[in-house]
Amino acid sequence: METAKEVGASALWAGFNVQMETSANVFREAASLATQIQGETIPTDKSDTLSMETTLRQPVGPILSIVPWNGTAVLAARAIAYPLVCGNTVVFKGSEFSPATHALITQCVQEAGLPAGVLNYLNSSPDRSPEIADALISAKEIRRINFTGSTRVGSIIAQKAAQHLKRCLLELGGKSPLIVLDDADIDAAVKAAVFGSFLFQGQICMETSTERLVVDEKIADEFVAQFAEKAKRLSAGDPCVTGDCIIGPMETVSPNSRERINGLFKDAIDKEPQLPAAAWPNVRSCRPRSWITSNPTCRSTMETRKPSGPITVVDSLQRETEGNSHCTTRSTP
Amino acid sequence: METAKEVGASALWAGFNVQMETSANVFREAASLATQIQGETIPTDKSDTLSMETTLRQPVGPILSIVPWNGTAVLAARAIAYPLVCGNTVVFKGSEFSPATHALITQCVQEAGLPAGVLNYLNSSPDRSPEIADALISAKEIRRINFTGSTRVGSIIAQKAAQHLKRCLLELGGKSPLIVLDDADIDAAVKAAVFGSFLFQGQICMETSTERLVVDEKIADEFVAQFAEKAKRLSAGDPCVTGDCIIGPMETVSPNSRERINGLFKDAIDKEPQLPAAAWPNVRSCRPRSWITSNPTCRSTMETRKPSGPITVVDSLQRETEGNSHCTTRSTP
Q1: What are the GO MF terms of this UniProt record (chains A, B) (predicted)?
Q2: What is the reported pTM?
Q3: What is the CATH number of domain A177-327?
Q4: Residues 6+ positions from A106 with CB-CB distance below 8 Å
Q5: Which of A30, A171, B147, B273 could bond to A148 as cystine, CB 3.0-4.6 Å?
């Protein structure tokens, strides 16, 4: 419920993520690494001596983990569990948009019995966040940086880390395509596509999410029709009131989400006026729902930017002539 | 001879490095990787299905390799061979201080039969180098950056790469210590220490080089006396005339080397007036030779900056009480 209030997560998304089921598994899986952290014995080219090169993997010290609000619990669990299991301490900078959820996760982990100082939680108002991240990255005590979030901010974090020659591990936005070939089980493909496109309002970028659907042109019309029909039936609501809605609000975190998503959509239509839109209900409503476009050209911003919302591009392709090139675009910073 | 002229390499260093013996072995070893580039089959937690995750390692495209003048041939070989063996093409930016040597290496590799465009060489005057590196890192065609050089420039390269979210592989300056315990064979240790400290005027940072000697106090006096004696006998000269000299000139590449090294030395003496200097011949000569200091304190710049010259710090330590802490300082950007 905390997470429904903070980030508009429906019961479906909370069930996958926030209620600690998946997150607890992350800790269990991470724990299994503890005895698997191996160094190496490396051969040398001095065959006539007993010389030997040996590497050891050792903890480096405090890790700064910065996580977003969208995979609220599971991304926090990952950013905490793995550094700890490898013997480091963690400075966990929670998202400004889900401070209560991230504080709760910290509390759960600390109550499991960590010594003082091993897991350190902090949060801030959104306007002070860049300044605080900067100070932490610059601090000589921080040895590595782990960031999950937008491509734009990831590039800034990486630049600051590079200034101090600190390694960073980034998980940024993607444009992950779902490819549907002409021999696919269309029902199953539509089901997976709807799930991947609209889970948590399309605001995630994990293995279950998809930003683009690339469909063989032989089945594209049939696929798009079924996809639109299913998408239109997704229930929208306020998860604090109706937890079983599928599409929750986006304005909880980003008040300008509606304008941004409508802007992307309008941009696509402006550039490709004959764009066959299978369904675009509620474009002007307060709460965006599911929209589908097919065949916007590369001129459209929507095709290269991660929309982070309930909007999906369908490309149909001629399998023989176009190959994989449709699937290689990536999110731009 | 080209390399003696360009970077002041003696026959000893050239023999190890520049005459393509070591470099040819780098290509042979890299070639053996070609059939060892493996993806992975990753287990999933869906035990009741046939689902499977498979990763493939694929070439990414053009790699920018920027190399320094100090490991003239061997560092160039490494920066060319490994990306090529992994199926990429290489834009090889040679050092401004060894353009002829780097052009020669490129020519050798190209004559081995590479198709056009696979290995691309460029060089420039020193003043245009930052601008050219910047343009190359920004170019969308360049996918990865490989840089060997100073810590300071490495940080700049990493920041530019981060701006475009391009991965880079950096090998920068170190403060690699040679540790001599009280049961060491002192003759052998002195021999290794002199080799590691003064090969190519101490301007390298490879496994054979050492920036600091950490010696157990029980044998420190004896070690320093022998080290100083051996160091004083190293012959200095111009390798274009006397190829068998050990210490060549540094001014070929950096006209201000003498002032810089003398400054580091003076700084150490100023901060620690009672510094027992075992040998510092020719401080004011045109051509610096071998200097040794023992026990400068942490206040001294020389202890944390990579000197890139024939100057070496000897720390004596009490093994039981001080442990490894002496060996963990690193080069600062």
Answers
A1: oxidoreductase activity, acting on the aldehyde or oxo group of donors, NAD or NADP as acceptor
A2: 0.83
A3: 3.40.309.10
A4: A80, A92, A94, A119, A121
A5: A171
For residue A320, the distance in angstroms to the closest alpha carbon of chain B comes to 22
Q: State both tokens at A323.
A: 């190959």
Q: Is the CB of A165 less than 8 angstroms away from the CB of B162? A: no
Chain position carrying tokens 């905490």: A80
Chain centroid to CA A312: 16
pLDDT of residue B23: 86
List the catalytic residues of A. Answer: 171, 205
Tell me the pLDDT tens digit for each residue of A245-279. Answer: 777 777 777 777 777 777 777 776 676 655 544 43
Q: How far is CA B149 from the centre of its chain?
A: 7
Interface of B with A in 3-62 (CB under 8 A): 25, 45
What does pLDDT average to over chain B? 80
How far apart are alpha carbons B308 and B239 in whole angstroms? 19
Contacting residues of B for A151, CB less than 8 Å apart? 165
The residue behind tokens 């959104």 is A126
Interface probe, candidates A16, A159, A327, chain B, greatest B C-beta count within 10 A: A159
A165/chain B closest Cα distance in angstroms? 6
Q: Phi first, then psi: what are they for A299, rounded to 5°?
A: -70, -15
Contacts of A165 in chain B (CB under 8 A): 151, 154-155, 158, 170, 172, 333
- Domain limits, CATH 3.40.605.10, in chain B: 2-172
Token pair in block for residue A311? 């909007």
Could you tell me where in chain A the CATH 3.40.309.10 domains are found?
177-327
pLDDT at B295: 46
Residues in A touching B155 (Cβ below 8 Å): 162-165
Percent of chain B at pLDDT exceeding 90: 42
Whether A96 has a pLDDT exceeding 70, the answer reads yes
- What's CA A122's distance to the chain center, in Å? 21
Cα-to-chain-centroid distance, residue B223: 26
d(CA A268, CA A300): 5
Contact in structure between B53 and B42 (CB atoms under 8 Å)? yes
* Terminal-to-terminal C-alpha distance of chain B: 33
Helix (H, G, I), strand (E, B) or coil at A212: strand
Closest residue of B to A153, CA-based?
A: B163
Query: Each residue of A150-208: pLDDT tens digit?
Result: 999 999 999 999 999 999 999 998 767 888 999 999 999 999 988 888 888 778 776 66
Q: Mean pLDDT over residues B40-51, rounded?
A: 78
Residue labelled with tokens 């002070």? A128
Residue B192 tokens read as 């290794």
Look at residues B145, B157, B174 and name the one whose alpha carbon lies nearest to residue B62. B145
Among B245-254, B282-291, B309-318, name the one with the lowest average pLDDT.
B282-291
Q: Provide mean pLDDT across the span B240-257.
A: 75
Q: Which residue has the tokens 């006397």?
A: B242
Catalytic residues of B: 171, 205
- A-contacting residues of B 148-207, CB under 8 Å? 151, 154-155, 158-159, 161-165, 170, 172
Q: Is residue B260 very low, low, confident or very high in pLDDT (cuts 50, 70, 90)?
A: confident
Give percent of chain A above pLDDT 70: 79
CB B317 within 8 A of CB B216: yes
CATH assignment of A2-172, given 3.90.226.10, 3.40.50.620, 3.40.605.10, 3.40.50.2300? 3.40.605.10
Say how far apart CA B278 and CA B270 lie, in whole Å: 16
pLDDT at residue A123 in the model = 96
